[in-house]
Design a protein that fits this description.
heterodimer, A: 246 residues, alpha+beta, six-stranded antiparallel sheet, four-stranded mixed sheet, 16 strands, 19% helix, flat, disordered N terminus, B: 221 residues, Ribosomal Protein S5, domain 2, five-stranded mixed sheet, four-stranded antiparallel sheet, 4 helices, 9 strands, Rrp40_S1 (chain A), KH_dom_type_1 (chain A), cytoplasm (chain A)
Chain lengths: 246, 221
């Protein structure tokens, strides 16, 4: 049985789909360079191999990473995520962020938080939080303030509707320039969204039908190109106009 | 019985001895599982579901410095020709589970194994059994693990082969499998070109079996 040895030139793999085991770079051919590896890549002696299926990305001058999309989230520092309160302890809230373990949110990690004004979160409260510490052997730690200590929109999200998506769709919604589906919706409707990098999205609008429309548009736009996303939004908006009484 | 036609060289299902059955794979088939895959090799159909990494459910099974990989394998009642009721405690099923589990531990990323709090569950269910179920299970589980985004050093692939009518045959179906010839299943890491599983099941003549037993006894005496 012959096994094809793939060419070790990285150019052939950039922006293409890769699977675990693919060797994307042969380091012996570039002796004195520093290369930065992101998610999904692993160095084995002189070869760079892929460990997660996805698209290989490259940013000049020397950053390589694999963009993949999963249902499960791997916590990393400085990510803004949507968590659901599961339990309350003396020092922490236990929050589920769709990761391997529950995360801890200290009761004092709020703007102007002291022992006297600890917020009361019921089981099931949706929170927009920031990850402060994330190691693979400890539970992640969260905070409801930004790096300077201000609240900056973090905290409990009231009303609205939350749904689960993959991590890839969440990254697409947060990309700049604005994702086409959000731009097309924003031209006709007014709504607010909170996107967590852990694959949770929260939508709120004045009327329930608008919330449903925005949620459906987002959920269906994951694998569409920008033109297809605009067409999808137009179709949904037309249906809304036809259904509502003239 | 003529498993390979002497006239045309074809097998029962019209394949040549070195031809595989048609394969078909689909990922993301289960909404609730972190990763899932449906894999078909000819008529053999297997569905795999992966849950993880998540907290270890049973603390007593926790291993230091390694993720715990659990694998459960079962055949649906309707998967074989007759709707046979095999109880879950069947020894065959338990040994298969131990086999399947051990194959995957070696393919996991070494950096991942530093997470000593994590558990990965692989569930395999055979929906239709027409020979080569072990291979189809390995292939389905690989796809499901990749779908779940669990870091892996390489893809594990598997196929079975046999030897009937003096011809090596690739990818046996149920009729050829139950013909009484040897049956070998190979698990291969594709890009790394390493074998993780080599399993042969064959009928040994009684005389040969006695010789082996005598040798073992003489070794230890």
């Amino acid at each position: 049985m012959e096994v094809e040895t793939s060419s070790s030139s990285a150019e052939s793999f950039i922006d293409k789909a890769v699977v675990p085991g693919d060797i994307v770079l042969d380091l012996t051919s570039m002796p004195n360079q520093t290369i930065k590896l992101g998610a999904g890549l692993r160095q084995e002696h002189d070869m760079l191999s892929v460990v997660k299926a996805g698209n290989l990305k490259f940013k000049k001058p020397n950053k390589y990473w694999v963009e993949s999309s999963q249902k499960r989230y791997v916590p990393s520092v400085e990510d803004a995520v949507l968590g659901i309160v599961v339990d309350t302890r003396a020092d922490n809230f236990l929050v589920d962020i769709k990761g391997p373990t529950l995360a801890f949110l200290p009761v004092l990690a709020f703007e102007g938080g002291t022992r006297r004004n600890i917020p009361r979160f019921e089981k099931g409260t949706l929170l927009y939080v920031r990850i402060v510490k994330a190691n693979n052997c400890m539970n992640p730690e969260l905070s409801c303030t930004n790096a300077t200590g201000k609240a900056a929109e973090f905290g409990a999200l009231k009303e609205g509707y939350m749904f689960d998506t993959s991590t890839g769709l969440a990254r697409m919604l947060l990309s700049s320039p604005t994702c086409p589906v959000l731009e097309a919706l924003g031209r006709k409707l007014s709504f607010e969204t909170a996107v967590g990098l852990n694959g949770r999205v929260w939508v709120n609008a004045a009327s329930v039908s608008n919330v449903i429309l925005v949620s459906n548009a987002i959920m269906r736009s994951e694998f569409l190109s920008s033109v297809q996303q605009k067409i999808l939004v137009e179709k949904l908006l037309q249906r809304l106009q036809n259904d509502s009484p003239a | 019985m003529e498993y390979v036609s002497s006239l045309t060289g074809f097998r029962f299902d019209g394949r040549r001895p070195n031809e595989m059955r048609q394969i078909r794979g689909e990922i993301g088939v289960l909404a609730k599982a972190d990763g899932s895959a449906l894999f078909e090799m000819g008529n053999t159909k297997v569905i795999a579901a992966v849950f993880g990494p998540r907290e270890v459910q049973n603390k007593s099974q926790q291993i230091d410095n390694q993720a715990l990989v659990r694998c459960e394998y079962s055949m649906a009642n309707f998967s074989t020709g007759d709707r046979a009721r095999k109880p879950k405690g069947d020894r065959n099923i338990i040994s298969y589970s131990a086999d399947h589990g051990s194959k995957y531990i070696n393919t996991f990323d070494a950096s991942f194994s530093g997470k000593n709090l994590k558990q990965i569950d692989i569930f395999l269910q055979v929906l239709q059994a027409d020979g080569g179920t072990r291979s189809a299970c390995i292939n389905a589980a690989t796809l499901a693990l990749a779908d779940a985004g669990i870091p892996m050093r390489d893809i594990v692939t598997s196929c079975s082969a046999g030897y009937l009518c003096s011809t090596p045959l690739l990818d046996l179906n149920y009729v050829e499998d139950s013909a009484g010839g040897p049956d070998v299943t190979v698990g291969l890491l594709v890009k790394m070109d390493k074998m993780t599983l080599l399993q042969v099941i064959a009928l040994m003549p009684t005389f040969f079996f006695f010789c082996c037993c005598i040798c073992f006894v003489l070794l230890f005496v």
